[in-house]
Amino acid sequence: VGIAAVGIAYHGLPQRLPPQALQYASGRTDRDAAISSCKTSVQRIQTGDPCRLGLSQTGRVDFVVWGDSHADALAPAFRALANEAGISGWLVSHPGCAPLLDVVRISSDASGCDRFNDAVISAIEKYNIRTVFLVGRWEVNALGRTNWETSEGLGKVSLVDANSKQ
User: Fold this and answer.
1) For residue 129, what is the DSSP state?
2) From the CB of residue 94, how many other CB atoms can be counted at a distance below 10 Å?
């Protein structure tokens, strides 16, 4: 109990690790506050007000980053590139929802994907956005969860289209 108390009190004794390892480990909590606080909803997409990336917070939209939570993870890189290029884009993401049309993901951790994706494609057409980056955890949609994930209690994942029998 005493050893556990010391470990807890000193946050796992990080000084026992080399500085390079600590630097790598700190990346686990890196978050872009602006992106983390921006939540994309169907309503925001329909009104042309999703999360913005790049210099301009209004006006022309040059690109869209569309995807699941992996899109959020890559958004800071897209923001930096957009700032450098002087362009503006949207981030439209929904956890667990692959950017696929006419496909339904059957899993316990994703809902409303078809409605969300329909709103995104409608906005892309409405605003005549020519460049769209599709970002997702593709292997989960194609192959399902790993054995480790299912052993951790995450349910199975499968995709079906409108013609499939569920």
Assistant:
1) -
2) 27
